[in-house]
Amino acid sequence: MRKPDSGRRFLRTVKKYISFPGVRILNDKTALAEALSDEFESASSLAAENNRKMSVALSGGSTPALFFRSLAARTIDWESIHFYWGDERCVPPENIESNYLMTSRELLDRIQIPPENIHRVRGEADPDQEAERYAGEITRNLPSNSQGIPVFDWIILGLGDDGHTASIFPGFKLRPAEGFLCAVAVHPETGQERITFTLPLINSARRVSFLVSGEGKSGVVASIVQKTGDYLDFPAAHVSPQEGILEWFLDRGAGSGIS
Asked: What is the pTM of this model?
């Protein structure tokens, strides 16, 4: 039996990276989490060496949970890291659906980080008032660009099967209107309210990373990365940092549609 031509497969993989810069395809979820943890450890070390704080917005979901677990085992100067959330369900922090609760279990409870470095969305509060309050907290703590929009060092995003990211769903219906830093979104199926970053805030970041796993999302990923079909219907396709880096961390399943 002829052995697989590993050299040709390697070249095909290299060509993928060349054709679509900023795309990294890892073997599985574990490799995906480790790769992003490597990047985080390097970035945090650089921030600590330069005696500066690093502002990071996190995402919810099962794939980020693996990343958080991996990150908790790393040697990191946590005093230099400030955590925010790109979106949050309007539930109390002890609710099983809370992104904050998941992050606490998988990361925050396992590390030594000053409480003042954790900037959670108050999902138990009035959604409209909390969106305004959270935007104010971000504005006070982060530097702004020439348009007066706060600049995160790093925003880590997930991707839904329908192409949503953070809690910006197809149709882009947010309350108040797009252009605000934070807004209230309504899940199109469950009707659950969520507080989310808006595209102007996301696109002002220095670095934005999508963390995506699973073959079920491969079609959406391929459409956005390759700019094919009705890709602009997907909110995630509108993530395009003005002066920052955009990158995709994919497992083999999520990246399988890229040709």
From this structure: 0.91
pLDDT reported for residue 207: 97
Q: For residue 90, what is the DSSP state?
A: S
Q: Is residue 257 part of a domain?
A: no
CA distance 233 to 164: 10
> What is 5-53 written as a DSSP string?
-HHHHHHHHHHHHHHSTTEEEESSHHHHHHHHHHHHHHHHHHHHHTT--
* Cβ neighbours of residue 91 closer than 8 Å, sequence gap 6 or more: 97, 98, 123, 124
What is the span of the domain harbouring residue 110? 21-251
- pLDDT of 43 higher than 70: yes
**CATH code assigned at 81:** 3.40.50.1360
pLDDT at residue 49 tops 80: yes
Strand locations in the chain, DSSP E? 23-26, 54-58, 81-85, 87-89, 154-157, 174-175, 182-186, 193-197, 207-212, 245-251
Q: How many CB atoms lie within 10 A of CB 189?
A: 8
> Number of folded domains in the chain?
1
Report how far apart the first and last C-alpha atoms of the chain are (Å, whole number). 28
**Cis omega (within 30 of 0) for bond into 176:** yes
Residue 112 lies in a domain: yes
**Residue 6 within a domain:** no
* Amino acid 21: pLDDT: 75
Average pLDDT (164-173) is 95
Over the stretch 172-211, which tens digit does the pLDDT of each residue have? 999 986 668 999 999 999 999 999 999 999 999 999 999 9
* Residue 3 resides in a domain: no
Give the separation between CA 199 and CA 182, rounded to whole angstroms. Answer: 9
